[in-house]
Amino acid sequence: MVAIKNLVLVLIASLLALSPSSGETWAPGDRANPPRTSLFAQSAGQILNRDFPSGTISFLLLDAPTGRVLASRWDNPEAPIPLGSLVKPFTALAYGEHHGFRYPAHTCRGTATGCWLPRGHGNVDLPSAIAYSCNSYFRMLTAKMTAAEVSPTAMGFGLEPPAPGTAGPALAGLGNRWLISPLNMGRAYLELVRRRDQPGVREVLAGMAQSAEQGTGAEVDRALPYPNALVKTGTAPCTHSKRAPGDGFAIVMAPSDDPQILLMVRVHGIPGAQAAKIAGQMLRRIEE
Ligand SMILES: [Zn+2]
User: Fold this and answer.
1) pLDDT tens figures, 169-214
2) Judging by beta carbons within 10 Å of its beta carbon (0-12, 13-18, 19+), is residue 197 exposed, middle or buried?
3) Residue 255: is the preceding peptide bond cis (ω within 30°)?
């Protein structure tokens, strides 16, 4: 990721010397927001399309500071679809709004308490529930929650709110009731980073760092020469015309202390933890 940062800095220096000719929207003199990533965007897009040509992989690469799309291969990224556990951070923040940002501890007993991991995650707090995407923890957290409670938080992050009447675990992305645009979801994660010092957000981001180290996003750090990412994974009902049991999602932001890019990946027919592996490989290729 140091390499990306250096590349970006070199591009800033070279592009500031040129008149803006990239076709990007950019107010001249706005030094905080120059068209710094045009060349990086072009080459990253070429690399990802060349090295990951499979039609089963969709991706969005965003510039973290601005939310601008640097490269993408995703049909209708603005059309709302089920995104599974990617909503969990926002569900947790909505819970926090109504409970003084105090999060209960919980014991996940696996299948017995409705988790995807049959043997269970044992004792979990909010960061580890994010890191391991513990469904049991989020079933507990959302047991009494309603769409009306979650909607203001969701909309505050630019997400489509859950349909009126949605309640319980569906508010944590279990099932397919809450539909959100993938592009809006990517940008909502960038907003999380902007609010990193706010209560609740700290725990969520700690969980995403833990995910990359040892949770469902561990394959991302494993793929990187300098492991340093924030990750959230999700698995959701497939929305492709050729149906699979599910689609895996991973959102990766790097570097973790000051994200410069966000990569969102969807892979047809595999769980989110495996989609994270592909996301890690993609990040590594554009970092090289
Ligand atoms: Zn669990």
Assistant:
1) 999 999 889 999 999 999 999 999 999 999 999 999 999 999 999 9
2) exposed
3) yes
pTM, full prediction: 0.86
Q: Give residue 115 CA to ligand 1 midpoint distance, Å.
A: 5
In the reported structure, the alpha carbon of residue 139 is separated from the centroid of ligand 1 by a whole-number distance in angstroms of 10
Q: How confident is the model over 223-236, as pLDDT tens digits?
A: 888 778 999 999 99
Ligand 1 centre distance from Cα of residue 47 (Å): 37
Neighbours of ion ligand 1 (CB under 5 A): 108, 115, 121, 134, 136
Q: What angle do CA 140, 81, 156 make, to 5 degrees?
A: 65
By CB atoms closer than 10 A (0-12, 13-18, 19+), residue 273 is: buried
In the three-class reduction of DSSP (H, G, I as helix; E, B as strand; rest coil), residue 47 is classed as helix
Note the pLDDT tens digit of each residue in 150-175.
Answer: 999 999 999 999 999 999 999 999 98
Structure tokens at 97: 């709004």
Q: Which residues contact 242 (CB under 8 A, 6 or more apart)?
A: none
